Amino acid sequence: MTSAERWHVGDVTVTKILEFESGGFPPTFMFDGADEERIKSIGWLHPSYAEPDGSLRYSVHSFVVESDGKRILVDACVGNDKDRGFPGWNHLELPYLERLEEAGYPPESIDIVLCTHLHMDHVGWNTRLVGDRWVPTFVNARYVFARTEWEHWSRADHGLGDMPETVDQMASLDQAIADSVTPIVDAGLHDLVESNHQVTPEVFFVPTPGHSPGHVSVEIRSSGQHAVITGDAILHPVQLDDPQVRSNFDTDRALAIKTRTDFMETYADQDSLVFGTHFATPSVGHIVKDGDGWRFTPAAASVRVEAP
Question: How many CA atoms lie within 13 A of 277 on its CB side?
Fold first, then answer.
């Protein structure tokens, strides 16, 4: 069993649904500017976000936001049965949907699926394999994509921007669009919206481009309380220590650094609850100023819901 954690933000509830969490991830694979020795030197990253050898811990999970009578799934992880070029992500067989249902959210009860961006680890459960076809998982939901994001990745000549040009990355990114986004578009279940889209009176998009051209984070404001779901504007807490640590998967590294720095300056030392989309457990907390950089201080969940 694993616990689905739940937080309250005013009248809104946010529940983390885990797909998988792992350690031993080489920092140089993900980041330019962070090697094992640097990771080992940042004491507050240990033990939750880094291993003793300087490798990284990370998580892939969704957040379900309940607001204004709507059940909103934010980011649909990697998904089962997907053909992916990354070790540990290929042809997964994980009980994500069972965890979702045990937390009180059977797939048919989801009203809206939000994708902060259209990389492979944020769209996978948009679809599931039935026979030899990819079909929508959340059959009663509208899938909401930022228009800029869809227009970029749906172009055959989109390119990779500042990402390393490797065949596996290009193939996996395009494959994710083909098996996890295009079937939603073909079914007419998608809505293309602007990057400041209001989802409910309490939930709205905030443009955070750089990691991808149309990347958005998700803000929640309710009854005087405030929270933000990062998406990949911040991929790992090491980037709080120094926003100049660049992700190898940013399409525009300079813009991503600016966005990341602005994010920290906006949300640090506030009552803002920060939901880290790839932060290992504990994934939710506050950003606080720490010398020339920032650090992450966890916030305990309000409720734990047992799931398989």
Answer: 26
Residue 234 token pair:
């911040």
**Residue 80's CB: how many other CB atoms inside 10 A?**
18
Count: domains in the chain: 1
Query: What is the block-wise mean pLDDT of the chain (308 residues), using blocks of 10 residues?
Result: 83 97 93 93 97 97 98 98 90 97 97 98 98 97 98 93 76 93 98 98 98 98 97 97 93 97 95 96 96 92 59
CA dist., res. 55 & res. 125, Å (int): 27
Taking the C-alpha atoms of residue 96 and residue 103, their distance in angstroms, rounded to an integer, is 11
Determine the pLDDT at residue 306: 55
Closest CA to 87 of 44, 26, 40: 26
Mean residue pLDDT of the chain comes to: 94
**Under a CB-based contact definition with an 8 Å cutoff, are residues 88 and 76 in contact?**
no
Euclidean distance between CA atoms 163 and 246, whole angstroms: 11
Q: For 74-90, what is each residue's pLDDT tens digit?
A: 999 999 999 998 878 99
Q: Nearest 5 degrees, angle CA 121-CA 16-CA 52?
A: 70
174: domain CATH number is 3.60.15.10
Domain span at residue 211 reads 2-307
Q: Cis link prior to 282 (omega < 30° from 0)?
A: yes
